[in-house]
Write a structure and sequence with these properties.
Structural class: alpha/beta
Bound molecules: adenosine-5'-triphosphate, magnesium ion
Order of helices and strands: HEEHEHEHEHEEEEHEHEHEEHEHH
Distance between the termini: 170 Å
Oligomer: single chain
Shape: flat
Length: 441
Amino acid sequence: MSSGAALPPKPLPQGPLPPKPLPPEPLPPKPLPPEPLPPEPLPPEPLPPKPLPPKPLPPEPLPQDAVLAALARVQDPEIRRPITDLGMVDTVEVSDEKLSVRLLLTIPGCPLKATLDADVRAALAPLAGARNVRVEMGVMNDEQRLAMRRGLRGGDGSRPPENPFAQPGSLTRVYAVASGKGGVGKSSVTANLAVALAARGLQVGILDADVHGFSIPRIMGLDRGPTRVDDMILPPIVHGVKVISIGSFVAPGKAVIWRGPMLHRAVEQFLTDVFWGDLDVLLLDLPPGTGDVAISVAQLLPHAELLVVTTPQLAAAEVAERAGLIAAQTEQRVAGVIENMSWLEVGGERLEIFGAGGGAAIATQLSEQLGVAVELLEQIPLDPMLRERGDAGRPLNLASEAPDAEPGEVSAVAAAFVRLAERLGTRPRGLAGRKLPVSPR
Ligand SMILES: Nc1ncnc2c1ncn2[C@@H]1O[C@H](COP(=O)(O)OP(=O)(O)OP(=O)(O)O)[C@@H](O)[C@H]1O
Ligand SMILES: [Mg+2]
């Protein structure tokens, strides 16, 4: 085989390369299958025939007993007893259209008439149905008032009223708030402690025994006087507390210039003629020192226990001790010592403006001298809010109203009263240091 000549190389094509064939154009998208048609709506079902409006039923019969049972839940706002027990329900009439009740007030122009009217209507509303409620007010006659007073005081009304707190069976704890010197905060402690005790659900009364220097009406914001029902005095109730003060009986700006026997008589009358009801706690705000009133209180209320208030200043504590020592002579118990104005908290620090240790010192001294343990019950800080609210007649409530307080936050001073109320409100009435009313046969 001849090798032949090698083939000449293929001439490379000259010029531009021929254009590359274009890729095939994408196929147009397949048309989607047609969506199924929605099912044709069914013809609407025929509506059921409209029910006829119900025929008004005749009102359920309402027996008088049911009305009386509802009225028994209404209390007289001043006496705090069911109006049915006080003979205040005169007539009850029930018909298909209306429910009429006629009440008898103890005196004409009773200051709490509107409250009573609202309370009665609220009690009757659930059973009245469509009936129209009518509340009429009349006034008790002399006989009816006498029957009510007898019912409240017991007995046949022929004997003069007695001091209920001096009776052997009395369950009321009586605390007399005392101090050796003035201005240490007795009245502020009395008022705020009373409100804190009432907030615990206790029945509380304040007898302002500081006849010459009464300040309880202002601190408690007393805006009305007591109601007189013949010889019975019904104390006004403010901030949940029954309050009696000579301030309610003297003209504004007038001073009381009574001396010993008159003072004694005033305190006695406040105990006997005032209808206090069943109190859990009675607080007496005493004048400073160991004067006539302190002695009268000791005589009239041998069961009273002293709460000795002092500042942390040792000199004040020495004076306070003298007030406590009167307890030894009168056989009254000392329930404890309260140190007030203990410190002022500024920027998280306690400034002891009136010194320190007065409360503890007097508790120790009284314990030694009386021969029974006397405790320092509480230290109450200084707080301008306490004074401001005292001036405005709004004792502290449990939540602080300081501008930077969280909702529900309790200020240190309010917390101190809450603790004090807890200690004094739950304490059983002690018998130590008390003469028992037992006479030898
Ligand atoms: N913890 C306290 N913080 C701030 N102010 C207080 C405090 N305790 C009492 N005060 C204020 O001190 C003043 C004297 O208090 P208060 O009248 O209660 O004392 P008192 O012992 O009853 O006086 P008196 O002996 O004249 O009856 C009042 O202006 C009162 O608001
Ligand atoms: Mg006072």
